[in-house]
Amino acid sequence: MKASMILKTSAVAAALLAPASAKIIMAGDSTMAQSSTNIQGWGTPFAQYMSLPVTNLSRGGRSARSYVREGLWATLVSQIVRGDYVIIEFGHNDGGSVATSDRAATFGDGTETTTVTLADGTVEVVQTFVTYEKRMVLDVINAGGIPVVSSTTPNGDAWDTAHTTLLPGNRFVPYSQYAAGNYTSRGATWIDHYGYVAIAYEDLGYSKVYPALFPNDHTHTSPAGADVVAKAFVNGLKCKNHALANFLTTAGKAIPKVCRSGAFPTHTMP
């Protein structure tokens, strides 16, 4: 075989073996998911700010626990190609008692477990929120992906009595930070989405946020509200100097970078 043919054949083989272009995969609940109603999750407008393809696998009503139990997480992991970014954001549906909710995680930030029997008779060993998120981060790393753990976002009515400042997030904000922190040496990062949304909401002011951007309840945003939350995440990427900030569209680059010192609520592990 001629040398030129050998080189050509090798190049074709290398192209076939090379992974596809990187993409962004999103895992979360309804606050991130696509919706066809008057509410919208922030993952939908977020796609317009990124030059990488975005696959939004968020699902309404899910918690970290139920997303794993229902096999949604395994399906997501099967789609990861080396170099993909995976954004993980849970917390809105993860509270409550494991005795009465099939979404609630065991309380705590360690390896505590609770054994329960579901309505269909299935026996489930329920982990803590931190354990579920640490598993997700490690699964992404082992699949060759890059995990981006995000804190949950604030509800529209999470203001102080003067309606000037957002209140600190609940325990799932530091839980998510803790989960990501275990694997920062392996490429995991944490974005305080709660904090960056707080900046955006406070800049807009209470009257333009709630109920203006929350047509049905205090949790789910309108399409306009989802865009505010998506832009806040982009702002977080910029302030964090995250690698994903290198893949912004023109519209993404145009989003103002606002990184105020002391602007974020103080999150303390329980």
Automatic annotation (TrEMBL):
<dbReference type="InterPro" id="IPR037459">
    <property type="entry name" value="RhgT-like"/>
</dbReference>
<dbReference type="Pfam" id="PF00657">
    <property type="entry name" value="Lipase_GDSL"/>
</dbReference>
<keyword id="KW-0732">Signal</keyword>
<keyword id="KW-0378">Hydrolase</keyword>
<protein>
    <recommendedName>
        <fullName>Rhamnogalacturonan acetylesterase</fullName>
    </recommendedName>
</protein>
<dbReference type="InterPro" id="IPR036514">
    <property type="entry name" value="SGNH_hydro_sf"/>
</dbReference>
<comment type="similarity">
    <text>Belongs to the 'GDSL' lipolytic enzyme family.</text>
</comment>
<feature type="signal peptide">
    <location>
        <begin position="1"/>
        <end position="22"/>
    </location>
</feature>
<dbReference type="InterPro" id="IPR001087">
    <property type="entry name" value="GDSL"/>
</dbReference>
